[in-house]
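FAQ: What does the model actually see?

It sees only this:
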Amino acid sequence: MHPQVFELPLIFDLGATAAFALTGVFAGVRRGYDLVGVFFLSAATALGGGLMRDGILGRGIPVALRNPDYIIAVAAACVAGLFLTRRMKRFERWIMVGDALGLATYTMVGAQMALRSGLSVAAALLVGVINGIGGGLLRDVLSREEPLVFKPGEFYALVALAGEVCFVFLVIVLGVDMKTAAISGIALTLVFRYLTVRFKWRTRPFAPPS
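And it is asked to produce this:
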């Protein structure tokens, strides 16, 4: 990997995978799923965004399937979830932090991969958002919930898009190397996400329901 290209340390990648998986565990527990259901829902949540990204980009067998550590991280999250479900509120803040960090990071990774694959800026923005929110979208669909990203509420996909726009602007317009641009985009996403939670900013319906 070129030193000026943003690359996730494996330990961080696995940690973010486990944090995403935990949200799938809690969703499965709320729906009353058994062990198999909880595991597959958490795996879809943790790995779904990356699998969708690699499928769009035609990257062959995804790294999450070639490296068993990712499946182990999901399994570890399931085991941890058994002990955390009754104390979910206590750990909610930390899970939110991990989720925000994963959202910001994977969005930049997806956008970077798309740009390096020769896709247009618009396509890169789309792939980045899919990489960041795709797992959560799959989680909601599989558990028969209306996807959170479709409903008025906290800024989520929009904060990822804001960080992406910053990343792409720095790379395409200003010629900043991808590593520096990605770190800047991640920082902006995290700050924006914190502000939306701190001040309870909410999106509104596009139009009155008919």
